[in-house]
Amino acid sequence: MNAKRIIPCLDVHDGRVVKGIHFARIKDVGDPIVCAMEYERQGADELVFLDISATVEHRHTTVGLVRETAEKISVPLTVGGGIRTLDDFRELFDAGAARISVGTAAVRTPDLIKAAAEAFGSDKVVLAIDAKSSGTDSGTGEEKYSVYVSGGSEDTGIDLVEWAIKGAELGAGEILLTSIDRDGMKTGFDLEMLNAVCAATDIPVIASGGGGDLASFSDLFLETPVDAALAASIFHFGLYTVGDIKNELRTHGIKVR
Fold first, then answer.
1. What angle do CA 129, 49, 175 make, to 5 degrees?
2. Nearest of 125, 68, 130, 67 to residue 94 by alpha carbon
3. Is residue 22 within 8 Å of 184, Cβ to Cβ?
4. H/E stretch holding 77
5. Quick check: 206 and 226 in contact, CB under 8 A?
6. How far apart are CA 17 and CA 8, in angstroms?
7. What is the per-residue pLDDT across 165-195, written as a single tens digit (0 to 9) for each?
């Protein structure tokens, strides 16, 4: 078993880290640089920096803040939000990003994934997918999920599993899969959704949305083959540290870094 990664997420709006529920009702959490340094101190394997309003506001990611954050930490920083062109990729790599996450732009222009993978390498391209339950398939009885874009405000009608397969075929090196239904709820990860995507693709998957008590993280890695868990609320509001989660995983024989 490869070592599992624990990844705090910094959702950034107007230069501040925020957190909401179901992608709404956001609350101010703090300064992104201060948060990033603290999570590295706690033992985070990497960090994800998402400019959550960049796409909706039709602007680019706050490059200056990305640069300042990257300069203060040594763990890899994945950046997403408002990225639409290869020039956006280059600018953020120059600012210190280790990897780039694309969601809405990938749906709008799928060839962006292929072009970025060819230009920078698949390992530098993360396909961000925000998904929500669309009901049960009447034929199979399996839960179905729809892909959402623009900060979770627009249902594309695209089937989650089909999009994950296509994204992998286009060259994405990893999938960051967020359950909108579970976002901010701290009720546990959507294991059925995660297993469906893992079974359909052969690239690593980061689970996001629903991390709550310590057991939810051990359940995640014991019951799905995901490579990493991303969380925000539990870290931002001091419920647990990265170290707390890693210690819990070790007690279940789950390898961590």
1. 25
2. 67
3. yes
4. strand 77-80
5. yes
6. 12
7. 999 999 999 999 999 999 888 899 999 999 9
pLDDT digits (tens, 9 = 90+) for 182-228: 988 889 999 999 999 999 999 999 999 999 899 999 999 999 999 99
> Residues 196, 191, 156, 20: what is their CA dihedral angle, to the nearest 10 degrees?
-160
User: Residue written as tokens 């390898």?
Assistant: 255
Closest C-alpha to 37, from 12, 91, 86, 74: 74
Looking at the predicted structure, is the pLDDT value of residue 61 above 80?
no
DSSP string, 201-217: --S-EEEES---SHHHH
* Residues annotated as catalytic (active site), given as ranges: 11, 130
Q: Is the pLDDT of residue 56 over 60?
A: no
Whole-prediction pTM value? 0.93
pLDDT for 141 equals: 83
The residue to which tokens 């990938």 are assigned: 106
Other CB atoms within 10 A of residue 94 CB: 11
* Count, residues in the chain: 257
- Domains assigned to the chain: 5-251 (3.20.20.70)
Identify how many contiguous H helices and E strands the chain contains and give both numbers: 10, 12
